[in-house]
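To illustrate the input format used throughout this study, we show a single complete record. The first block contains the structure-token representation of the backbone; no residue identities are included at this stage. The design step must infer an amino acid for every position from geometry alone.
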């Protein structure tokens, strides 16, 4: 290797061995030398930067760290270059004097240094799925995306599980731990820079789960079942509203529309293969005694009991 002039060695020895060259997201634009560290300023005009034994062509979306390393005889004989991509990017290529540099067996970019100035340049490209990995799952699929906070920084991963026909979501997991759905019906997981492993499990739905969904209601509950026609095909949903004590049924709704009770005292809704969303409203029953023990059974209570029996029967 070439021998450096004494004044050059003194110059190198006077600074720290590690020389760091920062290339900003918008490109290294000018800069200042601070001790052994060069920091590129995005506010200044973009221009080529130089250091002891090398120059840096401004790059975008990453950082280059370079240091002269020694052999056993304490002579500088190589330039070790470490590309550090910004979040969301990965190294595409590293160049020394216009030639692409390959990574060695030790996962290092090491360039022989013979005393001549070496020009360094790196290209960084957007990385795919750097924030998360979606594991394969059966009977459905999972999609995920980075979402932004108000300050426009990526800070969460939004997970969207989609069951296949005949299946429903059982659970969503991140790094092997089950995550809960939030109050906006979203699976939103904080992202702190470490890669997330996302998975989901789907289970087969029952016929009733496919046919209807009962919405939460106050002051009572809804029960429902599929009932059969004479040819044994499921063709209707029988809905049974059950008021809490002191309340009565105000209305029963299917897909947001009120339905009427039929002449048999039943809430019977035709089922045509599309999922039905069932709900009910209950109001206070002013006819019930306000205080004290029950004093007999009113005609209205008898009628309610009779209707309950009817509602639990299947249509023949």
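Output of the design step:
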């Amino acid at each position: 290797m070439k021998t450096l002039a004494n004044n050059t060695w003194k110059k190198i020895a006077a600074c720290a061995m590690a020389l760091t060259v920062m290339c900003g997201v918008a490109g290294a634009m000018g800069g200042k030398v601070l001790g052994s560290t060069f920091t590129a300023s995005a506010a200044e005009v973009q221009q080529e930067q130089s250091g002891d034994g090398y120059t840096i062509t401004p790059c975008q979306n990453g950082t280059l760290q370079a240091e002269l390393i020694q052999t056993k005889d304490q002579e500088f004989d190589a330039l070790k270059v470490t590309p550090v991509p910004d979040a969301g990017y990965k190294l595409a290529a590293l160049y020394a004097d216009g030639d692409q540099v390959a990574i060695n067996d030790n996962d290092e970019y090491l360039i022989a240094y013979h005393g001549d100035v070496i020009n360094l340049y790196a290209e960084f490209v957007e990385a795919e799925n750097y924030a998360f990995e979606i594991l394969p799952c059966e009977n459905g699929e999972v999609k995920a995306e980075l979402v932004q906070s108000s300050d426009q920084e990526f800070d969460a991963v939004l997970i969207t599980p989609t069951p296949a026909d005949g299946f429903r979501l059982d659970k969503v997991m991140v790094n092997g731990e089950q995550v809960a759905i939030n109050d906006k019906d979203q699976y939103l997981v904080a992202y702190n820079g470490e890669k997330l492993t996302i998975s989901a499990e789907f289970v087969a739905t029952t016929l009733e789960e496919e046919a209807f969904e009962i919405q939460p209601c106050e002051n009572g509950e809804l029960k429902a079942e599929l009932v059969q026609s004479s040819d044994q095909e499921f063709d209707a949903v029988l809905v049974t509203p059950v008021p809490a004590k002191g309340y009565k049924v105000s209305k029963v709704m299917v897909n947001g529309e009120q339905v009427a009770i039929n002449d048999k005292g039943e809430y019977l809704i035709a089922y045509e293969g599309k999922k039905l969303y069932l709900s009910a409203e209950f109001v206070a029953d002013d006819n019930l005694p306000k205080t004290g023990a029950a004093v007999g059974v009113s005609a209205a209570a008898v009628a309610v009991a009779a209707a309950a029996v009817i509602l639990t029967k299947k249509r023949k």
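Structural context for interpreting the output: The chain has three helices and 25 strands. The chain has a mean pLDDT of 74.
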